[in-house]
Amino acid sequence: MNYDLIALDIDGTLLTDDHTLTSNVREAVREAHGRGAEIVLCTGRGPANAIPVLDKLGLAGTMITHNGAATVDSASRTVLHQYSIDNAEVARFRAYCLEAKLHFDLNTAFEMLIEDITPEAEAMYRLYGASPVLRNPGDPLPEGLVKFTLFGDQAELDRVEAEWNGWTHGLQHIRSGDYFIDVQHRDASKGKALRQLAQLRGIEQSRVMAIGNYFNDVGMLTFAGLGVAVANSPEAVKEAANVVTRSNEADGVAHALHAFAWT
Predict the structure, then answer these.
(1) Is the pTM of this model over 0.70?
(2) Span 183-201, mean pLDDT?
(3) HEC string of the chain?
């Protein structure tokens, strides 16, 4: 086995566009695990809708969630490490979205909170298997927030992202998909969380493999000894990777594992 730790993004990478885990991908991931690699889902999702994917793989263990803002143990449902964000900083992004009538959710390590719901947002949550909890907008923001996520159409988010790029603030915002912008702690990233986990396990960087598809995956792709971008990735993500595999619609994860993980 060439790699002791294999980090897998979920959406657009492990799953097809309709969020299906194919049998080819499942069996390849399980084979990698059976050969001795630790499989770590490394995702922008929260644990609540990432754990079901791990269950479908027939695996359990450590997951890097919320783009590295919360590392959790799937079996015990405990937080191993998290980067909480300042509610005063979050309030500015929330106020912007309220004024612009843009949908958002607020995330602690294990809970997703919303203040309203639109048909589009409801369909999106259903697609991702998420079950947000409706909060009272008049209540104080909860403690322990790790991520604020904005959802909208691509052109609208392009405009918001360009405007937020001009802001000065203590957080970071990152595009985690065509229809999502995530706001979180400056130190939170998939790459940093993967590095911390590898160090904890005593695994050399050269023995880490990562597969992803979007801008929030670049940190882990550049950290890993082998960073693999699926073919449906933006060009900048492909350029950050060492190699490019097939798309998520063509069992790219399975192809990459067979091609590189144990040959």
Answers:
(1) yes
(2) 96
(3) CCCCEEEECHHHHHCCCCCCCCHHHHHHHHHHHHCCCEEEEECCCCHHHHHHHHHHHCCCCEEEEHHHCEEEECCCCEEEEECCCCHHHHHHHHHHHHHHCCEEEEECCCCEEECCCCHHHHHHHHHHCCCCEECCCCCCCCCCCCEEEEECCHHHHHHHHHHHCCCCCCEEEEEEECCEEEEEECCCCHHHHHHHHHHHHCCCHHHEEEEECCHHHHHHHHHCCEEEEECCCCHHHHHHCCEEECCHHHCHHHHHHHHHHCC
